[in-house]
Design a protein that fits this description.
The chain is α+β, with helices and mostly antiparallel strands. It has 4 helices and 4 strands, in the order H-E-H-E-H-E-E-H. It has one domain: Glutaredoxin, CATH 3.40.30.
Length: 107
């Protein structure tokens, strides 16, 4: 998924979008090596495995697990395994952009 994630981050640059990752390599140093080798530019945390603190809190039972949240923090989709969420992401980013245009500005 890394090549697709890299292209998604690049495509969404300067838009209301954030990609966050959780890694489950057994060894924390291995995770750092993978992030560097795969050119992961987004924020990523290490959680050991599906019984780690983050995985437990988010009910992750397998990797990859993908959550899509909207600009209000509402979970709009979840998938264990790869699924093409690009159309949903595009729509949610457009909604986020529209909501900032409709919001009154403070002087």
């Amino acid at each position: 998924m890394y090549p697709h994630e890299r292209s998604l981050v690049k495509r969404m640059k300067d838009r209301p979008f954030a990609l966050l990752g959780i890694n489950s390599d057994i060894n924390r140093e291995k995770t750092r090596e993978v992030c560097k080798a795969k050119q992961l530019t987004w924020r990523s945390w290490w959680d050991r495995n599906t019984s780690g603190l983050i995985a437990t809190a988010w009910n992750i039972s397998g990797w990859p697990t993908v959550y899509i949240l909207d600009h209000k923090g509402v979970i709009r989709a979840k998938s264990v395994g790869y699924k093409d969420f690009d159309p949903l992401i595009d729509r949610l980013v457009e909604e986020a952009e529209a909501s900032t245009k409709d919001s009154p500005t403070k002087d």
